[in-house]
Amino acid sequence: MIIKTYSTIIGLTIALMLPPGGARAEQPGIRDAFAEAVAKIGRGSMAEREQGIAALAESGHPRSPDILQALLDGRLYLEKASGRPVIAEKNNGRYRIEEASNGADLGLAEAEAIGRINVTSRLRGELRKLIGRLRLGSEDASARLAAIGAMMKDADQDALDLLQKHRAAETDERVKQAIALIFLVRDLDSDDKAARLKAIQALKDYDSQAVVNKLNAMLEADGEGGYAEADADIRSEAKTTLRSIEARIHFYRSIETVFFGLSLGAVLVLAAIGLAITFGVMGVINMAHGELMMLGAYTTYVIQQLLPDSLGLSIFLAIPAAFLISALAGLAIERGLIRFLYGRPLETLLATFGVSLILQQGVRSIFSPLNRSVATPEWMSGSWQINDFLSLTWNRFYILIFCLLVFAALLQILKRTRLGLEVRAVAQNRRMAKAMGIPTGRVDAMTFALGSGIAGVAGVALSQITNVGPNLGQAYIVDSFMVVVFGGVGNLFGTLVAGFSLGIANKFLEPYAGAVLAKILVLVFIILFIQKRPRGLFPQKGRAAEA
């Protein structure tokens, strides 16, 4: 194969010996070879494309790894009008394209204006190895680490020779460990028993899925009672190493479950905290609370449509906008309906349920019944890959942080502002507060608006983990009430503790009972709990509690 023929040369010369990228790109010979190779990838048949790939890798141009990576990822296209290869990214039904050869932004293009450059499965495998070898010369240790990870899946002798030469010059400890891992895995296939035993013992400290797969393969039994690994000593050592790694896997999974429980808890807290204010302080069962969250989520969607090229900025703008819109909607509901129904909880419940249906239908009429997708900014995408068995998603991590910031801000409002003082006074003793000159009607309206605004902010967070649709709020209204009741009606700290507790409990139960049964078990637990503590974990003295 042409690519294989060039691989050793490429690895030894380009990755380790060539001058800095900017200077390389300006050399006429490299520039011409690069331009010819890029053009050949775009225009040629599959055989010519293979030659173009090899020539591109050999050119030593700093853009070569990016173009090959785009080709591997299916992001390398041919612009039909000009015939030049471009790298394209989807952008709200269109494609943002850049010139492959120099990265120049060419703006947006319709799907019909470009055609994807395809490669065969065999070429994909070769591309992975080629990219790994090219990136091995990167100044960025993370890029080198990723390159070694790509090479590990199918490291041939050329790759091992290259890694052996690179090993001595490598300065980053993580990269050294990754290279050592590749050689230890290779030693598992050695003919020398002592070398195999030594490799198995050394692999005990590595958190690698490749090691687990390899050891499991050695311990597999065949149909005749034998094992893939014939040597009993090696099997015994492999079992010991595997048990050690599996113990750590169990630990990592526990960490991951706690993280996902906390992130679920953060969503529950965000959804319930506004309800805790209106339900706890005013004693109003607001069945439209979920729809106020939905309004916040749709606000995020609308702002993102207005700023399609600034996803990060749109999220930050959506937070105050969602708060404002949901707060105004809540204020209208309180002034137009709820204030006439104070003291009549059943009628309030039915009236707010009717409002929720009206809001849902209103959204269906404006945006259609179909769910809308809200794009996630790049800095919230992906995950923090700690090792092969533990990764934490960035969007849920940021929602957890966001939840704590919203909670802290709300606490400051209630403890350090005049509105907060009045809210606390009315919650503790309405008649006494009124006798002291506090306008309880205005406090009720502002409290309801505050709780509704926080529901809107919760909608912004929800838009980053699920699709936005008319029924978005319905999925969280029951859970929100459960959190408020479990934590203690009207107690914000209780809501925080209850939200995180129920989130973690749900995630630990789900693997054993399934998502639905886990939720049922949590509900049963709360019912039994409030039989013993009717006022929740942290009871709050207030109008609702006194009732």
Automatic annotation (TrEMBL):
<keyword id="KW-0029">Amino-acid transport</keyword>
<comment type="similarity">
    <text>Belongs to the binding-protein-dependent transport system permease family. LivHM subfamily.</text>
</comment>
<dbReference type="Pfam" id="PF02653">
    <property type="entry name" value="BPD_transp_2"/>
</dbReference>
<protein>
    <submittedName>
        <fullName>Urea ABC transporter, permease protein UrtB</fullName>
    </submittedName>
</protein>
<feature type="transmembrane region" description="Helical">
    <location>
        <begin position="481"/>
        <end position="505"/>
    </location>
</feature>
<feature type="transmembrane region" description="Helical">
    <location>
        <begin position="313"/>
        <end position="333"/>
    </location>
</feature>
<keyword id="KW-0812">Transmembrane</keyword>
<keyword id="KW-0813">Transport</keyword>
<feature type="transmembrane region" description="Helical">
    <location>
        <begin position="397"/>
        <end position="414"/>
    </location>
</feature>
<feature type="transmembrane region" description="Helical">
    <location>
        <begin position="345"/>
        <end position="363"/>
    </location>
</feature>
<keyword id="KW-1133">Transmembrane helix</keyword>
<dbReference type="GO" id="GO:0022857">
    <property type="term" value="F:transmembrane transporter activity"/>
</dbReference>
<keyword id="KW-0472">Membrane</keyword>
<dbReference type="GO" id="GO:0006865">
    <property type="term" value="P:amino acid transport"/>
</dbReference>
<dbReference type="InterPro" id="IPR017779">
    <property type="entry name" value="ABC_UrtB_bac"/>
</dbReference>
<dbReference type="GO" id="GO:0005886">
    <property type="term" value="C:plasma membrane"/>
</dbReference>
<dbReference type="InterPro" id="IPR001851">
    <property type="entry name" value="ABC_transp_permease"/>
</dbReference>
<feature type="transmembrane region" description="Helical">
    <location>
        <begin position="511"/>
        <end position="530"/>
    </location>
</feature>
<feature type="transmembrane region" description="Helical">
    <location>
        <begin position="258"/>
        <end position="285"/>
    </location>
</feature>
<dbReference type="InterPro" id="IPR052157">
    <property type="entry name" value="BCAA_transport_permease"/>
</dbReference>
<keyword id="KW-1003">Cell membrane</keyword>
